[in-house]
Amino acid sequence: MSTTVGSDEQVDPAAGERLTRILMEDDCVSGLWASIESGEMDHLVPELPALRMEQDPIHRHKDVLSHTVAVVAKTDPEITVRLAALFPSPGPGRSSTAGGRSATTRWWAPA
User: Fold this and answer.
1) d(Cα 42, Cα 49) in Å, to the nearest integer?
2) Above pLDDT 70, what percent of the chain?
3) Under DSSP, is residue 106 helix (H, G, I), strand (E, B) or coil?
């Protein structure tokens, strides 16, 4: 059963329960990677597999997905702690170039 969030969005409570089961394993690394590799995570947290395409701008040898899984794995198996590690505070949006100048959109800045 799903719950309506907005006009086009739906939340499946079973997805939240599945993510909780994965994160609450003492060693959540294998569950996270299995869910990512099987495509299940595309439905649970679609932003997570997308991190595979990102690279840490400072430590260029790290991909963001592997780093995120490693950080989650080093936390205590408490749901709020693991969720905080999985979803750190967002940074600025992607930079774009307009007219030869770099511009960054910050969603938190007043318009």
Assistant:
1) 7
2) 60
3) coil
Average pLDDT over residues 48-57: 72
Q: What integer is the mean pLDDT of 15-32?
A: 95
Question: Tokens 């030869």 sit at which residue?
Answer: 100
pTM passes above 0.85: no
Buried b (16+ CB within 10 A) or exposed e, 6-32: eeeeeeeeeeeebbeebbeeeebeebb
**Alpha-carbon distances, residue 101 vs 91, 95, 97, 104 (angstroms):** 20, 10, 5, 10
What mean pLDDT, rounded, does the chain reach? Answer: 77
**Whole-angstrom distance between the N-terminal and C-terminal Cα of the chain?**
38
Whether the Cβ atoms of residue 29 and residue 75 lie closer than 8 Å to each other: no
